[in-house]
């Protein structure tokens, strides 16, 4: 036995089994077979290799190994003998005969392996079962003890089949219940539905008669309009073409330039006139333009039924019925039909349901064709609302002042109609001392009304009187309290200064304004008591001290000038990892990208010195490892999540990469079994069973526990411990 | 072989010697033979088998579903291929069938007209083979794990029965009653065995880890208890004093001459004892995997010069050299746990039954004719069965 060949064989087997593909590489397999053909020793070696691979805890490896074994099984007697002596183990590893040794993940491949293995064993049995006793025994074992049904393509075991049957039965039971329910419902509702159907039909026939004549007329009209009818001039002799047309016709024969106008109306007529000259005589004599006319009648093609007083009741019923059918009966029937089709019931029931559905749908279509105009009803609803308003009118009138009066009621209250409700509110507020020109130009026709209102104002019970009093009050207040109000109302009396007024700033009232233009003799003067004694008073009584600060305060005013807010125009524009630019609009410094510097449209700094500085910073940042990226922790997280966070990168000089992660996976083609499924459960688990959180919770619970057993936990000085 | 024959012819050798040498050779060449099948009757695991000693022709087997089958082992067809037919069956339709798993079956040593079976349905039945009806039924309080009739007894007709009860029961076939109780064990009795040398000597093995030897004539107590440490108290912990195994003892077997006793226990050990003195011979068999909660029916060869022990071990039967403890070979053929095996002393065949419902016959391979050379033999074999041919396709060249 050649060592080189042997090694090559091992290598080939390793490669083939770790390819992770559902089919073997034929070229490599051929090579394997070539080597195995040389001698039984190679087959021995191959057998051991395959068995070791079959023992691997990876379904893909096993599957490939199984395929190789199957290939060689059909070739070599020696291999058959070897495999058959150890068929128990082989079956355990491929067909899952031992319940304590389930096939390894991934699941789909394992299932495939099992199915294929069972099929292969059967094929082996038919060809080699006679010759190899253990094979036959194994086959019988699978068939009789494990109850594998070899005819079943899915190769389910007995338990699986039973489970399936149970499921089927359960489903059937559920369907049966549903069916019974649907049947019962149908029994109950069928008569109801039929009733409403007949009712609906009756309603329609009731509505139809007054529209029927029109309907039939329309039908003929439509047929007329749809086709171009060439009319003989005798038929349309009563039509009177206008003289201008006559003129045009003559002109049209002379000069084609004028035809353009005519063509729009009547193109076929034009051509006709040009063709037959002898007919023209007839046309001319009859005063017609042509032999053929196209008559376009515009008749609205759809039937419209207007709700009127007479048919109101009928239409209402129909409307209700329509709603009932479309919202209740149809969905119900739909669901029954669904249930029936799923369960598969007798034809009669099914037909009945479909018939019901059909008739309902037909009625609905008919109803739609009627195009019943329900607008009248909607208006009626509005009317009802108005009636409600009338009810409100019966409420006894309120006396005295009413702050807000709706605009349309102002006339009733004897008030001026105003432009907007907001101004009226503002105006009526007595606290606001703004005086505005309230009275808009009154139309002359309202003069009588005005006089009447004057009378009303005399009546103290009326709202108008109250308002008048209020107005007067406000007017006097604004005029008298000049010093108390802001400068604007103070100057409002003099209309000449309005321009200046507008320029003047509005400031809050203060001491300086209180003493505006007056010289205050006492300003800033303080009477100072030298003696602090309560009863003993020295002879020279009071000494006045002038306080500069205080006196200045009396005359001066602080106005803080904050400047005006200027929105930031520029953006940070630093390039982001996703390719876009930073959109932040900070004034000076972006919290993520530092000082904001001018950049071009792709995010590069415009000034070269800025660029150099940034580069330096970047280099520095890379150099030092951020302390939150603790490599140990990162590796743990990576192990848990299966994602590469880059812990293997070295940041510091002295740090070494993690030993496990640095290595590439051994067989990149195989499905990674360690990769945890990214399910909601696993994600939650990651959070909940996190080491630190578990520790924290345990600590808290322990603390609570110890508290419980302490003697003086309820006393604060013990509790604080 | 030839030298043996000439030595025998010239009278240099004892006749036994040739027989022993040949039977040893045959035992060593046991394998699963394609030519010998046993009919599949059992729908469940086979718990116990027994071959009668008078003719060596009929085999009893008890299944875990209560079915008892009698097979005819004799090949009268004069063809190499033979399937052992079931002569008669106590099937589920039989009204006397055991309700639960049959644990032990045994032929009456002097007549195939009677056999005895005991079951987990707390009964032991004495059957009439002709009518397949129980001649007598013994009812017990607990599951019957085992029973045994003395193969050589002429002065008594006792069946020792081991049940869940720690007392060993002795049933007399003459009177049809339970006549005796042997007290001493503290656990359920998993195995009982009469000595093939002295008809009154009985060995019992129990779940308390002890093996006791009794003389049924002296009912006051056991003769002695087998001690794995041979009385060396310093080695034993206090509770392990006088125990044969550290776990349950679930297998007992005297050698054919009755001089030695072989025991197995759930401590995965097998021990060989001097049955006369109760001395542990300290033969090391290595690890004998044994996880059975019931009795293990293993067997010992007969008539070979070094005797062999056949022990069910997982899904295979392991063959040990009895006196050296050497593992000779492993017979792999069952697809599930093997429960019992029985040695046929006349033909040196081994029958084993397992949970995979099979009874497998392990038959010695016939000696190949020496004159033919290797190449021709291979061709011959292929000619016999086309399935043995290699089928390399030509494109692999």
UniProtKB/TrEMBL annotation, chain A:
Residues 261-275 have a biased composition (Acidic residues). The keyword DNA repair applies. This is UV-stimulated scaffold protein A. Residues 610-638 have a biased composition (Basic and acidic residues). One of its GO terms (biological process) is transcription-coupled nucleotide-excision repair. One of its GO terms (molecular function) is zinc ion binding. Its main location: nucleus. Keywords: Chromosome, Coiled coil, DNA damage, DNA repair, Metal-binding, Zinc, Zinc-finger. Pfam families: DUF2043, UVSSA_N. Residues 652-668 have a biased composition (Basic residues). Residues 478-496, 672-681 have a biased composition (Polar residues). It comes from the Eukaryota. Residues 172-199 form a coiled coil. It is found in: Chromosome. Belongs to the UVSSA family. One of its GO terms (cellular component) is chromosome. Residues 502-607 form the UV-stimulated scaffold protein A C-terminal domain. Transmembrane segments: none annotated. The keyword Metal-binding applies. Residues 243-277, 422-446, 478-501, 603-688 are annotated as: Disordered.
Automatic annotation (TrEMBL), chain B:
Substrate-recognition component of the CSA complex, a DCX (DDB1-CUL4-X-box) E3 ubiquitin-protein ligase complex, involved in transcription-coupled nucleotide excision repair (TC-NER), a process during which RNA polymerase II-blocking lesions are rapidly removed from the transcribed strand of active genes. Following recruitment to lesion-stalled RNA polymerase II (Pol II), the CSA complex mediates ubiquitination of Pol II subunit POLR2A/RPB1 at 'Lys-1268', a critical TC-NER checkpoint, governing RNA Pol II stability and initiating DNA damage excision by TFIIH recruitment. GO terms for biological process: proteasome-mediated ubiquitin-dependent protein catabolic process; protein polyubiquitination; response to light stimulus; transcription-coupled nucleotide-excision repair. Its main location: nucleus. GO terms for cellular component: chromosome; Cul4A-RING E3 ubiquitin ligase complex; nuclear matrix; nucleotide-excision repair complex. This is DNA excision repair protein ERCC-8. PANTHER family: DNA EXCISION REPAIR PROTEIN ERCC-8. Residues 371-397 are annotated as: Disordered. It comes from Ictalurus punctatus. InterPro entries: Rad28/ERCC8/Ckn1/ATCSA-1, WD40/YVTN_repeat-like_dom_sf, WD40_PAC1, WD40_repeat_CS, WD40_repeat_dom_sf, WD40_rpt. WD repeats lie at residues 95-137, 182-217, 242-283, 331-362. Part of the CSA complex (also named DCX(ERCC8) complex), a DCX E3 ubiquitin-protein ligase complex containing ERCC8, RBX1, DDB1 and CUL4A; the CSA complex interacts with RNA polymerase II; upon UV irradiation it interacts with the COP9 signalosome and preferentially with the hyperphosphorylated form of RNA polymerase II. Interacts with ERCC6/CSB (via CIM motif); promoting recruitment to lesion-stalled RNA polymerase II (Pol II). Interacts with KIAA1530/UVSSA. Interacts with a subunit of RNA polymerase II TFIIH. It is found in: Chromosome; Nucleus matrix. Keywords: Chromosome, DNA damage, DNA repair, Nucleus, Phosphoprotein, Repeat, Ubl conjugation pathway, WD repeat. Pathway: Protein modification; protein ubiquitination.
């Amino acid at each position: 036995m050649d060592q080189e060949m042997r090694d090559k064989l091992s290598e080939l087997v390793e490669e083939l089994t770790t390819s992770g593909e559902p089919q073997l590489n034929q070229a490599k397999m051929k090579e394997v077979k070539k080597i195995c053909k040389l001698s039984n020793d190679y087959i021995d070696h191959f057998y051991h290799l395959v068995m070791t691979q079959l023992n691997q805890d990876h379904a893909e490896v096993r599957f490939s190994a199984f395929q190789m074994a199957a290939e060689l099984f059909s070739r070599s007697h020696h291999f058959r003998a070897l495999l058959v002596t150890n068929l128990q183990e082989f079956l355990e590893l491929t067909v899952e005969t031992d319940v304590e040794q389930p096939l390894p993940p991934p699941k789909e491949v394992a299932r495939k392996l099992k199915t294929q293995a069972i099929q292969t064993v059967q094929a082996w049995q038919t060809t080699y079962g006679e010759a190899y006793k253990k094979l036959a025994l194994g086959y019988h074992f699978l068939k009789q003890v494990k109850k594998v049904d070899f005819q079943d393509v899915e190769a389910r075991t007995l338990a699986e089949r039973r489970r399936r049957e149970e499921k089927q039965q359960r489903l059937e039971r559920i369907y049966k219940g549903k069916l019974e329910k649907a049947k019962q419902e149908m029994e109950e509702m069928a008569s109801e539905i039929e009733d409403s159907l007949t009712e609906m039909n009756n309603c329609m026939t009731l509505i139809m008669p007054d529209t029927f004549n029109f309907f039939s007329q329309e039908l003929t009209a439509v047929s007329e309009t749809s086709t171009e009818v060439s009319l003989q001039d005798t038929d349309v002799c009563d039509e009177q073409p206008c003289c201008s047309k006559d003129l045009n016709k003559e002109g049209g024969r002379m000069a084609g330039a004028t035809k353009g106008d005519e063509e729009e109306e009547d193109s076929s007529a034009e051509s006709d006139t040009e063709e037959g000259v002898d007919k023209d005589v007839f046309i001319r004599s009859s005063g017609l333009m042509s032999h053929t006319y196209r008559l376009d009648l515009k008749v609205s093609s759809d039937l419209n039924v207007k709700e009127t007083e007479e048919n109101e009741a009928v239409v209402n019923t129909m409307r209700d019925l329509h709603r009932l059918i479309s919202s209740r009966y149809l969905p119900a029937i739909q669901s029954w039909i669904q249930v029936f089709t799923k369960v598969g019931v007798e034809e009669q029931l099914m037909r009945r349901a479909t018939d019901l559905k059909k008739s309902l749908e037909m009625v609905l279509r008919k109803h739609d064709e009627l195009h019943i105009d329900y607008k009248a009803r909607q208006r009626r609803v509005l009317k009802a609302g108005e009636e409600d308003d009338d009810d409100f009118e019966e409420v006894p009138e309120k006396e005295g002042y009413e702050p807000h009066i709706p605009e349309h009621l102002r006339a009733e209250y004897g008030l001026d109609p105003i432009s907007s409700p907001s101004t009226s509110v503002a105006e009526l507020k007595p606290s606001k001392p703004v005086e505005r020109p309230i009275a808009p130009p009154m139309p002359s026709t309202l003069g009588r009304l005005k006089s009447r209102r004057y009378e009303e104002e005399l009546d103290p019970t009326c709202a108008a009187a109250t308002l008048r009093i209020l107005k007067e009050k406000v007017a006097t207040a604004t005029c008298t309290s000049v010093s108390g109000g802001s400068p604007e109302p103070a100057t409002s009396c003099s209309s000449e200064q309005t321009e200046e007024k507008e320029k003047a700033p509005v400031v809050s009232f203060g001491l300086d304004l209180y003493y505006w233009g007056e010289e205050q003799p006492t300003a800033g003067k303080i009477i100072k008591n030298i003696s602090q004694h309560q009863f003993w008073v020295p002879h020279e009584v009071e000494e006045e001290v002038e306080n500069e600060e205080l006196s200045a305060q009396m005359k001066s005013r602080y106005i803080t000038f904050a400047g005006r807010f200027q929105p930031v125009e520029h953006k940070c524009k630093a390039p982001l990892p996703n390719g876009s630019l930073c959109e932040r609009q900070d004034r000076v410094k972006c919290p993520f990208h530092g000082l904001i510097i001018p950049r071009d449209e792709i995010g590069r700094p415009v000034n070269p010195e800025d660029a150099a500085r940034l580069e330096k910073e970047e280099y520095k940042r890379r150099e030092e490892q951020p302390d939150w990226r603790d490599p140990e922790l990162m590796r743990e997280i990576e192990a848990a999540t299966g994602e590469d966070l880059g812990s293997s990168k070295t940041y510091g000089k002295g740090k070494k990469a993690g030993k496990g992660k640095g290595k590439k996976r051994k067989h990149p083609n195989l499905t990674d079994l360690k990769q945890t499924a990214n399910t909601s459960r696993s994600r939650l688990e990651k959070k909940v069973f996190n080491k630190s959180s578990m520790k924290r919770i345990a600590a808290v619970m322990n603390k609570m526990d110890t508290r419980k057993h302490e003697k003086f936990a309820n006393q604060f000085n013990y509790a604080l411990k | 072989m030839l030298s043996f024959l000439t030595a025998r012819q010239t009278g240099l050798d004892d006749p036994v010697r040739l027989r022993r040498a040949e039977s040893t050779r045959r035992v060593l060449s046991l394998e699963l033979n394609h030519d010998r099948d046993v009919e599949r009757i059992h729908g469940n695991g086979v718990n116990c088998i027994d071959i009668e000693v008078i003719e060596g022709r009929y085999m009893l087997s008890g299944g875990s579903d209560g079915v008892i089958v009698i097979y005819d082992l004799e090949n009268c067809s004069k063809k190499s291929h033979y399937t052992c037919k079931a002569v008669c069956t106590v099937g589920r339709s039989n009204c006397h069938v055991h309700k639960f798993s049959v644990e032990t079956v045994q032929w009456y040593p002097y007549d195939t007209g009677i056999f005895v079976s005991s079951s987990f349905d707390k009964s032991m039945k004495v059957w009439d083979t002709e009518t397949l009806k129980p001649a007598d039924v013994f009812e017990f309080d607990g599951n019957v794990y085992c029973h045994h009739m003395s193969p050589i007894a002429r002065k008594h007709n006792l069946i020792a029965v081991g049940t869940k009860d720690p007392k060993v029961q002795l049933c007399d076939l003459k009177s049809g009653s339970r006549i005796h109780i042997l007290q001493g064990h503290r656990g359920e009795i998993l195995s009982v065995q009469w000595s093939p040398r002295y008809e009154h000597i009985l060995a019992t093995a129990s779940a308390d880890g002890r093996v006791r030897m009794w003389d049924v004539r002296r009912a006051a107590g056991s003769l002695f208890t087998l001690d794995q440490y041979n009385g060396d108290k310093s080695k034993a912990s206090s509770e392990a004093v006088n125990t044969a195994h550290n776990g349950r003892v679930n297998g007992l077997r005297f050698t054919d001459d009755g001089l030695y006793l072989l025991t197995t226990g759930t401590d995965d050990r097998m021990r060989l004892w001097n049955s006369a003195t109760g001395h542990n011979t300290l033969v090391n068999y290595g690890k004998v995997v044994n996880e059975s909660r019931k009795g293990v029916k293993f067997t010992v060869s007969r008539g070979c010069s070094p005797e062999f022990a056949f022990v069910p071990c997982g899904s295979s039967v392991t063959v040990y050299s009895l006196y050296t403890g050497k593992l000779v070979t492993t017979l792999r053929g069952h697809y599930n746990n093997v429960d019992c095996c029985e040695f046929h002393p006349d033909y040196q065949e081994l029958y084993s039954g397992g949970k995979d419902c099979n009874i497998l016959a392990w038959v010695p391979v016939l000696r190949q004719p020496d004159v033919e050379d290797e190449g021709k033999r291979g061709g011959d074999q292929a000619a016999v069965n086309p399935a043995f041919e290699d089928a390399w396709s030509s494109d692999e060249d």
